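The following block was generated as part of the benchmark described in Methods. Ligand: zinc ion.
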Amino acid sequence: MRRVRSSGTQPEIIVRKILRGMGIKYRSCPRSLPGKPDLVIATQQKAIFVHGCFWHGHHCDGGKLPKSNRTYWRSKQAKNALRDSRNTRTLRSKGWKLMVVWECQTRGSKRLESRLARFLGPHQ
Ligand SMILES: [Zn+2]
């Protein structure tokens, strides 16, 4: 079998693995949706964003700014966060249900599993 380089980031791979374990059928990165959610469960009209803590300015250690160029990074994070909330609004107004998984939350995967299970319902 040819080895295919995955386009997903490590946190995204963790989420995908959990979904597969739950028997959930998902698609990754449909370009037609605003904000390009990382994973889409089209049958339920649900989408999952897997956000890198730094790039999307999460309030955790991973979202902390580096010591140099703070102004630059701060405005970069602010821009990303603004874009995120705009995309979220657009998707919600179209009837999509959304869940955001932060990179740091993929480290305790037991808790993440139960969050995903709640989001996606008991069984489909
Ligand atoms: Zn975080």
